[in-house]
Amino acid sequence: MSLPPYLQEKIFALLRETPASHLKEARKIVTSRYQSHHKSSFQTQEERLSYLATRLPATYAVASWVLEKIVPHSSNLTSHLDLGTGPGTVFFAVQALFPLIQQNTLLEKDPSLIELGKQLMPLEATPIWQLQDFQHSSSFAPADLVTMSYVLNELEDPSPLILKAWEATKHFLALIEPGTPYGFARLKTAREQLIQQGAFIVAPCTHEASCPMSPQDWCHFKVNIQRPSFHQRIKQGTKGFEEEKFSYLIAAKQPHQRMQTCIIRKPIKGSGHIILDLCEENGLRRQVISKKNGPRYHDARHAEWGDTWDN
Ligand SMILES: C[S@@+](CC[C@H](N)C(=O)[O-])C[C@H]1O[C@@H](n2cnc3c(N)ncnc32)[C@H](O)[C@@H]1O
């Protein structure tokens, strides 16, 4: 997964005036603030630019991976609301995946991030930017698709926001969090809250029964991100790609066809067999598929972490 060329060019242009050493330093400050109290609020422009250079490529890739799951059900989606939009990361993924969505509302409390986001937009894009603190909003204008990406883990109590986001959702609510025990715990609580409100879970869960993950485990997935040159300069490392682990949840207002079974870990490829760890309505299950299974073995060889697996 890589950033669209226009976005790479625009980020590159915004970074040009700032020495890489300043951006590296700003990134360290943002990372240590985030690690100590789960907050990414930016205090300087260099901190915001370091987010564009080192985090936006990953959060864009994750948003694209997650929202692709909604594409098959998207023929009646025309509006989108993104809460805690930052520089508009999710919007770029929505724009690429849902040509029918023409109305995008991007809500963010940091005016300087909004200014940066406006500079990243392609000419033809006309989202509505809302400078607003979502904690102080009693409701949001309804939209077909509502998204929150890397937001819940920053809040003391996300429950009121989840309720308000669900009220504003006409069709789908998509939540994305870091693929950590903490990020997953936030989504697990959100899932219970949404099911109580009558939500249908579309992915990654294959049911609305209680989550079968053991307390020591957490449901997460992974994307590989091609690292733009600015990312390599600021975050260093020699690899051309980076892994981002994430957890996610898609809830719908109406019942939808969904995965029967979800592959919840990287398939283990042995000699002559593949091991798949699966989550399904009856709980967790491990399936071993050997070469003797013929076409099933062929399918299993191509199956990926996060895919559906038909029994
Ligand atoms: C980690 S960033 C994620 C940005 C973007 N969604 C992404 O995935 O790249 C979290 C964003 O939520 C915003 N945010 C946090 N609390 C907020 C609030 N109370 N109202 C509006 N935005 C908020 C922050 O300013 C920040 O831009």
Describe it.
This protein is α/β, with parallel strands linked by helices. Helix content is 36%, strand content 24%. Strands 1, 2, 3, 4, 5, 6, 7 and 8 form an eight-stranded mixed β-sheet that branches. It is globular. It starts with a helix and ends in a 9-residue tail after the last helix. 39% of the residues are buried. It binds S-adenosylmethionine. Residues 40-41, 56, 59, 84-86, 89-90, 108-110, 113, 133-135, 149-151, 154 line the site of S-adenosylmethionine (SAM).
At a glance:
With 311 residues, the chain is α/β, with parallel strands linked by helices. The protein has helices spanning 5-15, 20-37, 45-54, 56-67, 89-97, 111-120, 159-168, 181-196, 229-235, 295-302, and strands spanning 79-83, 103-108, 128-131, 143-149, 169-178, 200-203, 221-226, 241-252, 261-263, 268-269, 273-280, 283-290. Helix 7 (159-168) crosses helix 8 (181-196).
